[in-house]
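Hi team,

Below is the intake form for Sensor histidine kinase from Deinococcus marmoris. Please confirm the fields before the structure is written into the shared record.

FORM ID: S-0412
PROTEIN: Sensor histidine kinase
ORGANISM: Deinococcus marmoris
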Amino acid sequence: MTACPPSRKKINFWNLFPMFWLVFLAYPIIGFFDHPRPPAQWLLFWGMTAGFLAVYIQVFFYRRDGPGWALAGWAYSLVAYFVLFPVTGGGATAFLIYGASIIGFQGRVSLALWLAVFNVMVMAAPFYNGQYTLEDLAWLGPNMVFSLVAAYANHASYRRTVADVQLVQVQAEKEKLAADAERERIARDLHDILGHTLSVIVLKSELASRLAERDPARAAAEIREVERISREALQEVRSAVRGYQGSGLNAELARAKVALDAAGVKMNVSAALPGLTPQTEASAAMLLREAVTNIVRHARAKEVWISLVPSAGGHRLTVRDDGVGGLSAEGSGLTGMRERLRAIGGTLERGGEGGTTLTAQIPAAEATAAVGGMVRA
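The structure came back. Fields below:
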Protein backbone atom coordinates (compact mmCIF):
# COMPACT_ATOMS: atom_id res chain seq x y z
CA MET A 1 0.00 0.00 0.00
CA THR A 2 2.77 2.39 -0.91
CA ALA A 3 1.39 5.84 -1.65
CA CYS A 4 3.00 8.13 -4.18
CA PRO A 5 3.16 11.88 -3.52
CA PRO A 6 0.19 13.46 -5.30
CA SER A 7 -0.11 16.82 -6.96
CA ARG A 8 -1.75 19.18 -4.49
CA LYS A 9 -3.16 21.42 -7.22
CA LYS A 10 -5.63 19.02 -8.79
CA ILE A 11 -6.94 15.49 -8.67
CA ASN A 12 -4.92 13.16 -10.86
CA PHE A 13 -3.75 9.56 -11.05
CA TRP A 14 -1.46 9.84 -8.04
CA ASN A 15 -4.38 10.91 -5.87
CA LEU A 16 -6.52 8.02 -7.05
CA PHE A 17 -3.86 5.28 -7.03
CA PRO A 18 -4.01 4.59 -3.25
CA MET A 19 -7.75 3.94 -3.63
CA PHE A 20 -6.80 0.74 -5.48
CA TRP A 21 -5.65 -0.83 -2.20
CA LEU A 22 -9.18 -0.64 -0.84
CA VAL A 23 -9.87 -3.83 -2.80
CA PHE A 24 -8.48 -5.70 0.24
CA LEU A 25 -11.60 -4.71 2.14
CA ALA A 26 -13.14 -7.55 0.14
CA TYR A 27 -11.72 -10.02 2.70
CA PRO A 28 -13.58 -8.70 5.76
CA ILE A 29 -16.68 -8.12 3.61
CA ILE A 30 -16.60 -11.73 2.35
CA GLY A 31 -16.15 -12.93 5.92
CA PHE A 32 -19.12 -10.83 7.03
CA PHE A 33 -21.42 -12.25 4.35
CA ASP A 34 -20.29 -15.80 5.10
CA HIS A 35 -23.59 -16.40 6.90
CA PRO A 36 -26.65 -14.36 7.96
CA ARG A 37 -26.04 -11.62 10.54
CA PRO A 38 -28.34 -9.98 13.08
CA PRO A 39 -29.07 -6.23 12.67
CA ALA A 40 -26.69 -5.31 15.50
CA GLN A 41 -23.75 -6.89 13.65
CA TRP A 42 -24.78 -5.16 10.43
CA LEU A 43 -24.69 -1.81 12.21
CA LEU A 44 -21.38 -2.60 13.91
CA PHE A 45 -19.62 -3.86 10.79
CA TRP A 46 -20.69 -1.11 8.39
CA GLY A 47 -20.23 1.61 11.01
CA MET A 48 -16.63 0.54 11.73
CA THR A 49 -15.92 0.13 7.99
CA ALA A 50 -17.30 3.59 7.19
CA GLY A 51 -15.17 5.13 9.94
CA PHE A 52 -12.09 3.38 8.57
CA LEU A 53 -12.84 4.62 5.05
CA ALA A 54 -13.10 8.19 6.35
CA VAL A 55 -9.67 7.94 8.01
CA TYR A 56 -8.12 6.19 5.00
CA ILE A 57 -9.33 8.85 2.56
CA GLN A 58 -8.01 11.64 4.78
CA VAL A 59 -4.56 10.03 4.98
CA PHE A 60 -4.12 8.71 1.44
CA PHE A 61 -6.33 10.96 -0.70
CA TYR A 62 -6.09 14.32 1.06
CA ARG A 63 -2.59 13.55 2.40
CA ARG A 64 -3.30 14.38 6.06
CA ASP A 65 0.07 12.98 7.04
CA GLY A 66 2.16 13.59 10.14
CA PRO A 67 2.24 12.00 13.61
CA GLY A 68 -1.34 12.90 14.55
CA TRP A 69 -3.13 11.38 11.57
CA ALA A 70 -0.71 8.44 11.31
CA LEU A 71 -1.23 7.40 14.95
CA ALA A 72 -4.98 7.98 14.74
CA GLY A 73 -5.22 5.85 11.60
CA TRP A 74 -3.10 3.08 13.10
CA ALA A 75 -5.12 3.08 16.35
CA TYR A 76 -8.48 3.03 14.53
CA SER A 77 -7.35 0.15 12.33
CA LEU A 78 -6.26 -1.79 15.42
CA VAL A 79 -9.60 -1.19 17.13
CA ALA A 80 -11.44 -2.20 13.94
CA TYR A 81 -9.52 -5.49 13.93
CA PHE A 82 -10.34 -6.37 17.53
CA VAL A 83 -14.00 -5.34 17.17
CA LEU A 84 -14.61 -7.09 13.85
CA PHE A 85 -12.47 -10.22 14.25
CA PRO A 86 -15.26 -12.02 16.16
CA VAL A 87 -17.62 -11.08 13.32
CA THR A 88 -15.55 -11.63 10.17
CA GLY A 89 -12.78 -13.95 11.36
CA GLY A 90 -9.41 -13.82 9.62
CA GLY A 91 -10.70 -11.33 7.06
CA ALA A 92 -10.31 -8.59 9.68
CA THR A 93 -6.53 -8.99 9.30
CA ALA A 94 -6.82 -6.52 6.41
CA PHE A 95 -7.29 -3.73 8.97
CA LEU A 96 -3.96 -4.59 10.61
CA ILE A 97 -2.23 -4.31 7.23
CA TYR A 98 -3.89 -0.96 6.61
CA GLY A 99 -2.78 0.21 10.05
CA ALA A 100 0.83 -0.77 9.38
CA SER A 101 0.67 1.12 6.11
CA ILE A 102 -0.79 4.28 7.66
CA ILE A 103 1.74 4.47 10.50
CA GLY A 104 4.49 5.03 7.95
CA PHE A 105 3.26 8.56 7.26
CA GLN A 106 5.22 10.27 10.02
CA GLY A 107 8.84 11.19 10.58
CA ARG A 108 10.12 8.41 12.90
CA VAL A 109 11.10 5.21 11.17
CA SER A 110 11.54 3.42 14.51
CA LEU A 111 7.94 4.20 15.50
CA ALA A 112 6.66 2.99 12.13
CA LEU A 113 8.53 -0.31 12.31
CA TRP A 114 7.83 -1.05 15.99
CA LEU A 115 4.09 -0.47 15.60
CA ALA A 116 4.11 -2.53 12.40
CA VAL A 117 5.83 -5.34 14.33
CA PHE A 118 3.15 -5.01 17.00
CA ASN A 119 0.49 -5.47 14.30
CA VAL A 120 2.30 -8.58 13.06
CA MET A 121 2.30 -10.00 16.62
CA VAL A 122 -1.44 -9.31 16.87
CA MET A 123 -1.93 -11.16 13.57
CA ALA A 124 -0.13 -14.19 14.99
CA ALA A 125 -2.03 -14.15 18.32
CA PRO A 126 -4.86 -16.48 17.17
CA PHE A 127 -2.28 -19.29 16.86
CA TYR A 128 -1.93 -19.33 20.64
CA ASN A 129 -5.58 -20.07 21.31
CA GLY A 130 -6.02 -22.52 18.44
CA GLN A 131 -8.07 -20.30 16.13
CA TYR A 132 -5.42 -20.68 13.40
CA THR A 133 -3.56 -23.76 12.26
CA LEU A 134 -0.21 -24.06 10.51
CA GLU A 135 -2.06 -24.17 7.19
CA ASP A 136 -3.16 -20.57 7.80
CA LEU A 137 0.47 -19.49 7.52
CA ALA A 138 0.08 -19.83 3.74
CA TRP A 139 -1.98 -16.62 3.67
CA LEU A 140 -0.99 -15.05 6.99
CA GLY A 141 2.79 -15.17 6.40
CA PRO A 142 2.74 -12.95 3.27
CA ASN A 143 0.43 -10.52 5.10
CA MET A 144 2.94 -10.23 7.96
CA VAL A 145 5.79 -9.50 5.57
CA PHE A 146 3.66 -7.05 3.58
CA SER A 147 2.75 -5.14 6.75
CA LEU A 148 6.41 -4.49 7.52
CA VAL A 149 7.22 -3.59 3.93
CA ALA A 150 4.23 -1.22 3.69
CA ALA A 151 5.21 0.58 6.91
CA TYR A 152 8.78 1.17 5.74
CA ALA A 153 7.86 2.03 2.14
CA ASN A 154 5.25 4.59 3.14
CA HIS A 155 7.67 6.09 5.65
CA ALA A 156 10.20 6.49 2.82
CA SER A 157 7.47 8.08 0.68
CA TYR A 158 6.63 10.47 3.51
CA ARG A 159 10.28 11.44 3.99
CA ARG A 160 10.63 12.05 0.24
CA THR A 161 7.56 14.31 0.26
CA VAL A 162 8.95 16.27 3.21
CA ALA A 163 12.33 16.57 1.45
CA ASP A 164 10.64 17.85 -1.72
CA VAL A 165 8.72 20.48 0.25
CA GLN A 166 11.89 21.56 2.04
CA LEU A 167 13.75 21.74 -1.27
CA VAL A 168 11.09 24.05 -2.70
CA GLN A 169 11.27 26.22 0.43
CA VAL A 170 15.07 26.38 0.28
CA GLN A 171 14.96 27.22 -3.43
CA ALA A 172 12.41 29.98 -2.80
CA GLU A 173 14.53 31.35 0.05
CA LYS A 174 17.65 31.31 -2.13
CA GLU A 175 15.79 33.16 -4.87
CA LYS A 176 14.57 35.73 -2.35
CA LEU A 177 18.05 36.23 -0.93
CA ALA A 178 19.49 36.56 -4.43
CA ALA A 179 16.83 39.12 -5.35
CA ASP A 180 17.52 41.09 -2.16
CA ALA A 181 21.25 41.03 -2.83
CA GLU A 182 20.68 42.18 -6.41
CA ARG A 183 18.49 45.08 -5.26
CA GLU A 184 21.16 46.13 -2.79
CA ARG A 185 23.83 45.96 -5.51
CA ILE A 186 21.73 48.07 -7.86
CA ALA A 187 21.12 50.61 -5.09
CA ARG A 188 24.86 50.81 -4.34
CA ASP A 189 25.72 51.14 -8.03
CA LEU A 190 23.20 53.90 -8.60
CA HIS A 191 24.44 55.75 -5.53
CA ASP A 192 28.08 55.42 -6.62
CA ILE A 193 27.36 56.34 -10.24
CA LEU A 194 24.85 59.16 -9.81
CA GLY A 195 25.12 60.43 -6.24
CA HIS A 196 28.38 62.39 -6.57
CA THR A 197 27.78 63.29 -10.24
CA LEU A 198 24.35 64.80 -9.64
CA SER A 199 25.71 66.80 -6.69
CA VAL A 200 28.41 68.27 -8.93
CA ILE A 201 25.85 69.08 -11.64
CA VAL A 202 23.64 70.89 -9.11
CA LEU A 203 26.59 72.95 -7.76
CA LYS A 204 27.84 73.92 -11.24
CA SER A 205 24.32 74.79 -12.40
CA GLU A 206 23.87 77.08 -9.39
CA LEU A 207 27.25 78.69 -10.10
CA ALA A 208 26.38 79.24 -13.76
CA SER A 209 23.08 80.82 -12.71
CA ARG A 210 24.89 83.32 -10.43
CA LEU A 211 27.49 84.14 -13.12
CA ALA A 212 24.99 84.52 -15.96
CA GLU A 213 24.74 88.34 -15.65
CA ARG A 214 28.17 89.50 -14.42
CA ASP A 215 30.40 86.93 -16.21
CA PRO A 216 28.53 85.33 -19.14
CA ALA A 217 31.68 83.72 -20.60
CA ARG A 218 32.47 81.87 -17.39
CA ALA A 219 28.77 80.91 -16.97
CA ALA A 220 28.82 79.40 -20.47
CA ALA A 221 31.95 77.44 -19.57
CA GLU A 222 30.26 76.07 -16.47
CA ILE A 223 27.22 75.03 -18.52
CA ARG A 224 29.49 73.23 -21.01
CA GLU A 225 31.11 71.45 -18.04
CA VAL A 226 27.66 70.44 -16.79
CA GLU A 227 26.92 69.03 -20.26
CA ARG A 228 30.16 67.02 -20.26
CA ILE A 229 29.57 65.60 -16.79
CA SER A 230 25.98 64.71 -17.72
CA ARG A 231 27.10 62.81 -20.84
CA GLU A 232 29.66 60.86 -18.83
CA ALA A 233 27.02 60.00 -16.23
CA LEU A 234 24.65 58.86 -18.98
CA GLN A 235 27.35 56.59 -20.41
CA GLU A 236 28.04 55.10 -16.98
CA VAL A 237 24.33 54.46 -16.43
CA ARG A 238 24.04 52.71 -19.82
CA SER A 239 27.04 50.52 -19.00
CA ALA A 240 25.49 49.60 -15.64
CA VAL A 241 22.15 48.76 -17.26
CA ARG A 242 23.86 46.47 -19.77
CA GLY A 243 25.39 44.65 -16.82
CA TYR A 244 21.96 44.19 -15.24
CA GLN A 245 20.50 42.66 -18.41
CA GLY A 246 22.11 39.27 -17.79
CA SER A 247 25.07 37.36 -19.11
CA GLY A 248 23.53 35.30 -21.90
CA LEU A 249 22.08 31.87 -22.52
CA ASN A 250 25.21 29.91 -21.63
CA ALA A 251 25.29 31.54 -18.20
CA GLU A 252 21.59 30.76 -17.77
CA LEU A 253 22.28 27.13 -18.67
CA ALA A 254 24.99 27.02 -16.01
CA ARG A 255 22.57 28.41 -13.42
CA ALA A 256 19.93 25.92 -14.56
CA LYS A 257 22.34 23.00 -14.07
CA VAL A 258 23.13 24.14 -10.53
CA ALA A 259 19.42 24.37 -9.66
CA LEU A 260 18.56 21.03 -11.29
CA ASP A 261 21.51 19.24 -9.68
CA ALA A 262 20.35 20.50 -6.29
CA ALA A 263 16.91 19.05 -7.00
CA GLY A 264 18.34 15.69 -8.14
CA VAL A 265 17.37 16.24 -11.80
CA LYS A 266 19.71 15.36 -14.68
CA MET A 267 20.04 18.02 -17.40
CA ASN A 268 20.68 17.06 -21.03
CA VAL A 269 21.51 19.64 -23.70
CA SER A 270 20.97 18.12 -27.14
CA ALA A 271 23.66 20.03 -29.05
CA ALA A 272 25.93 23.06 -28.98
CA LEU A 273 23.90 26.25 -28.82
CA PRO A 274 23.92 28.36 -31.99
CA GLY A 275 24.97 31.99 -32.05
CA LEU A 276 22.07 34.32 -31.34
CA THR A 277 21.29 37.98 -31.57
CA PRO A 278 21.13 39.74 -28.17
CA GLN A 279 17.32 40.05 -28.22
CA THR A 280 16.79 36.39 -29.23
CA GLU A 281 19.27 35.24 -26.60
CA ALA A 282 17.56 37.32 -23.91
CA SER A 283 14.14 35.82 -24.75
CA ALA A 284 15.55 32.28 -24.75
CA ALA A 285 17.34 32.84 -21.43
CA MET A 286 14.21 34.19 -19.73
CA LEU A 287 12.09 31.28 -20.95
CA LEU A 288 14.72 28.76 -19.85
CA ARG A 289 14.86 30.34 -16.39
CA GLU A 290 11.05 30.16 -15.99
CA ALA A 291 10.90 26.57 -17.28
CA VAL A 292 13.65 25.36 -14.92
CA THR A 293 12.02 27.13 -11.96
CA ASN A 294 8.72 25.31 -12.67
CA ILE A 295 10.50 21.96 -13.02
CA VAL A 296 12.32 22.36 -9.69
CA ARG A 297 9.17 23.46 -7.87
CA HIS A 298 6.43 21.30 -9.33
CA ALA A 299 7.48 18.59 -11.81
CA ARG A 300 9.11 15.94 -9.55
CA ALA A 301 11.15 15.05 -12.66
CA LYS A 302 14.24 12.86 -12.94
CA GLU A 303 15.56 14.19 -16.24
CA VAL A 304 15.30 17.32 -18.40
CA TRP A 305 16.13 17.74 -22.10
CA ILE A 306 16.94 21.17 -23.56
CA SER A 307 17.45 22.02 -27.22
CA LEU A 308 17.74 25.22 -29.23
CA VAL A 309 17.78 24.77 -33.00
CA PRO A 310 17.31 27.04 -36.02
CA SER A 311 13.83 26.98 -37.52
CA ALA A 312 11.89 28.82 -40.15
CA GLY A 313 12.10 32.50 -39.33
CA GLY A 314 14.11 32.18 -36.13
CA HIS A 315 14.91 29.55 -33.48
CA ARG A 316 12.95 26.91 -31.61
CA LEU A 317 13.70 26.36 -27.91
CA THR A 318 12.37 23.12 -26.37
CA VAL A 319 12.47 22.22 -22.68
CA ARG A 320 11.07 18.77 -21.86
CA ASP A 321 10.93 16.89 -18.54
CA ASP A 322 9.74 13.44 -17.45
CA GLY A 323 7.81 14.68 -14.42
CA VAL A 324 4.16 14.40 -13.47
CA GLY A 325 3.02 16.44 -16.47
CA GLY A 326 -0.50 17.70 -16.80
CA LEU A 327 -2.07 20.83 -18.21
CA SER A 328 -3.11 22.73 -15.10
CA ALA A 329 -3.67 26.47 -15.23
CA GLU A 330 -0.53 28.41 -16.08
CA GLY A 331 1.12 30.56 -13.44
CA SER A 332 2.04 34.18 -13.88
CA GLY A 333 5.55 33.28 -15.04
CA LEU A 334 4.52 31.27 -18.10
CA THR A 335 1.65 33.64 -18.87
CA GLY A 336 4.05 36.58 -18.85
CA MET A 337 6.50 34.72 -21.07
CA ARG A 338 3.74 33.79 -23.53
CA GLU A 339 2.71 37.45 -23.76
CA ARG A 340 6.32 38.59 -24.13
CA LEU A 341 6.89 36.16 -27.01
CA ARG A 342 3.62 37.18 -28.64
CA ALA A 343 4.71 40.81 -28.48
CA ILE A 344 7.79 40.05 -30.63
CA GLY A 345 5.96 37.69 -32.99
CA GLY A 346 6.84 34.42 -31.24
CA THR A 347 4.73 31.59 -29.81
CA LEU A 348 4.82 29.28 -26.80
CA GLU A 349 3.21 25.84 -26.74
CA ARG A 350 2.89 23.46 -23.82
CA GLY A 351 2.34 19.70 -23.86
CA GLY A 352 1.48 17.56 -20.85
CA GLU A 353 1.92 13.92 -21.93
CA GLY A 354 4.75 11.93 -20.39
CA GLY A 355 5.92 15.01 -18.52
CA THR A 356 5.79 18.64 -19.62
CA THR A 357 7.14 20.05 -22.87
CA LEU A 358 7.56 23.76 -23.53
CA THR A 359 8.22 24.73 -27.14
CA ALA A 360 8.99 28.37 -27.88
CA GLN A 361 9.27 29.74 -31.40
CA ILE A 362 11.54 32.78 -31.13
CA PRO A 363 11.58 34.97 -34.26
CA ALA A 364 14.76 36.30 -35.84
CA ALA A 365 15.87 39.85 -35.08
CA GLU A 366 14.55 41.13 -38.43
CA ALA A 367 11.09 39.69 -37.79
CA THR A 368 11.11 41.09 -34.26
CA ALA A 369 11.98 44.53 -35.58
CA ALA A 370 9.20 44.31 -38.13
CA VAL A 371 6.66 43.37 -35.48
CA GLY A 372 7.94 46.18 -33.26
CA GLY A 373 7.51 48.63 -36.12
CA MET A 374 3.93 47.48 -36.72
CA VAL A 375 3.11 47.85 -33.03
CA ARG A 376 4.56 51.38 -32.92
CA ALA A 377 2.68 52.30 -36.11
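SUMMARY LINE: The mean pLDDT is 80.

Thanks, M.
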